[in-house]
Specification:
about 325 residues, four-stranded antiparallel sheet, 11 helices, binds adenosine-5'-triphosphate, ABC_transporter-like_ATP-bd, ABC transporter ATP-binding protein, nucleotide-binding
């Protein structure tokens, strides 16, 4: 079983908590909040991967979790998918508790992990059919649902070709079809466009957007690409060292920084005694007039750029196998 499959019937919880989904008040999954994490912690031995994370994803939005390598994004996503065990009353998906109602949570979500989740030695259709079986899509509906999922990502014509003949962008779209075949209410994507060329990146996003528009599905996505977050996410959370340091729409975050810069420039102008050179003061003023980018916001909040921590991002990107073809 790949990481991408979170089968409804496979309870992988090491803590052995039961599933109270069918008896819960919230069993219909009706909740204005698609995802909620309250003070979520997760450690691997001595490494604190997630450190008191508070997160609220609203139903129907595209929420981007941004952060450098090692910020804890994947770990947080895996806690929400129930692939990593969490204590009760910390993580909820459409009101269902990820510890107590694991099966109910799994039935509501589709997950495209960073690692490859398509099998090179099967056709596109066979790959999606496998996910349809794992996710318990009723047998009589299966063929139609598989065809529909392939159609949504524009892979109908290539459906009966082996996945090893697909380009990197096609593989990512195939993985999207795998996650969509169970008609999830929440789609979680971990670095969906990493390693793809700009055209393939925008194609993947166009397909995500089209499904979102058609179904009202909620999307939670992690990305390093600020331009994508800016263009496609309704709101973003800037994550660093296991927690969110800034949250809002890209426009709000940029405007907040612009205001802070203006206030600082005013302050410097008023005091005039800060010892800063005329040149520095001038550059501060000029800065306060330009609209900052999300990268500027990130740098301001955590004191560094997205690509500066961890040092292994390029390695990760270069080893992301869907960047080329399946071997
Ligand atoms: N299975 C594991 N065992 C030990 N440490 C881990 C494991 N998975 C993640 N970590 C550590 O937890 C921290 C957070 O990692 P995580 O993968 O969640 O970050 P990320 O923001 O998703 O980064 P990336 O973009 O590289 O995936 C890092 O310090 C990482 O080394």
């Amino acid at each position: 079983m790949t990481d991408g499959a979170v089968p409804a019937g496979d309870d992988g919880d090491a803590t052995g908590t039961g599933d109270a989904g069918s008896t819960s008040d919230s069993s219909s999954g009706d909740s204005a909040e698609a995802v909620s994490c309250r003070a979520l912690d997760y450690s691997f031995g001595d490494t604190k991967a997630v450190d008191g994370l508070d997160l609220s994803v609203r139903t129907g939005e595209i929420f981007g979790l941004l952060g450098p390598n090692g910020a804890g994004k994947t770990t947080a996503i895996r806690c929400i998918t129930t692939l990593l065990p969490v204590p009760p009353d910390i993580v909820k998906v459409f009101g269902h508790d990820a510890a107590k109602e694991k099966m109910a949570v799994r039935r509501l979500l589709g997950y495209v992990p960073q690692q490859l989740s398509a099998d090179a030695a099967m056709t596109g259709r066979e790959n999606v059919t496998l996910f349809a079986r794992v996710f318990d899509v009723p047998r009589r509906e299966r063929a139609a649902r598989v065809a529909q999922a392939l159609d949504v990502v524009d892979l109908s014509d290539a459906a009966d070709r082996m996945a090893q003949t697909y380009s990197g962008g096609m593989i990512r779209r195939l993985e999207l079809a795998q996650a969509l075949v169970s008609a999830p209410r929440l789609l979680m994507l971990d670095e969906p466009t990493i390693g793809l060329d700009p055209i393939a990146r925008s194609s993947v996003w166009e397909h995500i957007n089209a499904v979102r528009r058609a179904t009202g599905m909620t999307v939670l996505v992690t990305t390093h690409y600020m331009d994508e977050a800016e263009q496609y996410c309704d709101r973003v959370g800037l994550m660093h060292r296991g927690r969110i340091h800034a949250l809002g729409t890209p426009g709000e975050l940029r405007e907040e920084l612009r205001e802070r810069r203006r206030a600082e420039a005013d302050e410097a102008r008023k005091s005039g005694t800060t010892g800063e050179s005329a040149e520095t003061a001038e550059s501060g003023e000029a800065r306060s007039d330009t609209v900052p980018t999300l990268e500027d916001v990130f740098r301001d909040v955590v004191g560094q750029g997205l690509e500066e921590e961890g040092g292994t991002y390029r390695d990760v990107r270069s080893t992301r196998r869907t960047a080329s073809r399946l071997g």
